[in-house]
Amino acid sequence: MATALDIGPLSWVKSEIDLALDLTKTNLTAYAAHPEDAVLKKASASFHQAHGALAIVGLEGVTEFSRAIEQLLHAVNDHKLKDTSVAVQVIQEGIAALSGYLDALMAGGAHQSLKLFPEYRALVMQQGLPEPTPSELFFPDLTQRPPRREREPESLTGEPLVLRLRAARMGFERGLLKWIKGDAKGVSEMKASLTLIELTRTTPSARAYWWVSLGVLDALGADGLPDEVEARRFLLRLASQIKKLVEGASEVPAPFLREALYLAAIANNGHA
Question: 49-54: long-range contacts at Cβ-Cβ below 8 A with a sequence spacing of 24 or more?
């Protein structure tokens, strides 16, 4: 998803960022030739300046990317990695990708931070962390809300609401287990249970995650999600959010909504 960007704030600090990135690259090159902690600390200090400037500009996705570079730099600084030479190479490639991306923005390119995902994935995994998902660099407009219902359902509170949510949770988990075992009927069972949950949400903001997730299940049922691993991960997280809802949580964290929106955006079939 490309996002319209006011280039003004970036232009104000672009020269500062470029200088900090150039100093970082120079020090990393020197460190690769002669590994010395003092040189690496200079590289970290320079990059911290660049990361701070990017955070001020507010380039969502890009800031996440630069944070991953900084975290890997810290890991190298703290001697937490066995092969620092590979990590330094990954950092250098990440900085090159970041520089190129910022230059493209200044030239009028679209702000589409998902383009940085291959390098982001390398940065994260080099730290020994679980493989990231593309949705971590996906920042759509979360102020958009589901369409108004033609007819609002009866509002549930207290024990009737608790019983509804518990029944929906059990139905969803049964459907999920069927789907994991290869039974396609599990998708329709999960969707039926999720519909029961969505109908209990009375405000547009509370409905958003569950409404989008219904669209993702539509796509799943139509074989419209290109990556089964991501689909499975989404369903397990969705099950976890249902459990938390039953236990009394009312808010769904923004990263989970972004994940659902990402899967809806890449669906090539269904109604997501």
Answer: 49/16, 49/20, 50/16, 50/17, 50/20, 50/21, 50/24, 53/13, 53/16, 53/17, 53/20, 54/17
Contact in structure between 119 and 97 (CB atoms under 8 Å): yes
Which residue has tokens 């249902």? 242
Q: Which pair of structure tokens corresponds to residue 261?
A: 């929106």
DSSP 8-state code for residue 7: -
Q: Which amino acid is at 22?
A: D
Q: Which of 187, 160, 178 is nearest to 269 (CA)?
A: 187
What are the CA-CA distances from residue 143 to residues 16, 60, 62, 160, 244 (Å)?
A: 32, 15, 20, 30, 23
Q: What is the mean pLDDT of each run of 10 residues along the chain (272 residues)?
A: 68 95 96 92 96 90 96 94 92 97 93 95 95 93 88 88 96 97 96 96 93 96 91 96 93 93 87 50
